Amino acid sequence: AAKQSGRDSYRFYDEAISSAMWHRLMLEQQLMLATQPDADLGLKLYLQPKVSLPDGQIAGAEVLLRWEHPEKGLISPAEFIPLAEESRLIVALDRWVFARSCRLLQESTAAGYQLPRISINLSAKQLQEPDLVEWCANTVKRFGLDPGCIELEITETAFINLADTVLERLQALRNTGFSLALDDFGTGYSSLTYLRRLPLDVVKIDRDFVADLCQDERAATLLQGVMQLLDKLDFSVVAEGIETTEQSALLHSIGCNVGQGFLFHRPMPADEFIALYYHEASSSC
Ligand code: C2E
Ligand code: MG
Ligand code: MG
Ligand code: MG
């Protein structure tokens, strides 16, 4: 009987694997289709405002991808980005987001709505692409935009193997006029090395840091020191994942002037963001 159930669970295991693989293949297939330029298979740009501390005025926005799957509902990027990153699919996905963000800026401007600076996430894989700089430069040009209205967020773990070609690419992006942000700062292995070597404009303090801030005195002391360091190095700082007024006040008190988090706004569809931004602009006059 033991042997029998062993064989059964083995078979069960086998089926579990193949159904997981099937699920994956389906998602990959659909993602691939969804990134075709004219496809409308449910990929949507959401925007999360970045606000100045402490007054909460909108200072920019981060583009966050959402996938409104016809059967599965809203799928989080935490689920499909890692999947896409296992292949070059992520390159197409990021570029789709980049081009759609450019189109959003162009169409908003044409409709009389000048948007603040937009941040776009780039995956580590993108930095391996020899044509990245040229592609980004051509795309903003195609939409008649100034690269200065776009910030590129690159997560810290992208730089574990920091090749010279990657550094040159970053420098070239910056020379083109894009601003560069180091995302998820404090989660990598050699955060301080990155600060020394990368051509950066902005450092985004990771949400885990912010989460610990008010419970843990050492986390607060550490962040205070980091803030002084970043200030001396002339980086702008954005704190992500702010959920409480205490976190917001503490961050402001140690010199952090821009934040992002559910306390202020959740990521929202682009049209909601534009309405919010313009409502705010007119009510503050
Ligand atoms: P990220 O770039 O660090 O983005 C911040 C994430 O934190 C977003 O999750 C955002 O919704 C979430 N967040 C913002 N404020 C709060 C808060 O107060 N509390 C909590 N708990 N969470 C908050 P999201 O949208 O699920 O995206 C997850 C990650 O997926 C992003 O992390 C980014 O690494 C990746 N991602 C999203 N869109 C893209 C994209 O277009 N391209 C690439 N390469 N990656 C993307
Ligand atoms: Mg980001
Ligand atoms: Mg981040
Ligand atoms: Mg993060």
UniProtKB/TrEMBL annotation:
Residues 24-281 form the EAL domain. This is PAS domain S-box-containing protein/diguanylate cyclase (GGDEF) domain-containing protein. The chain holds residues 399 to 683 of 683 of the full protein.
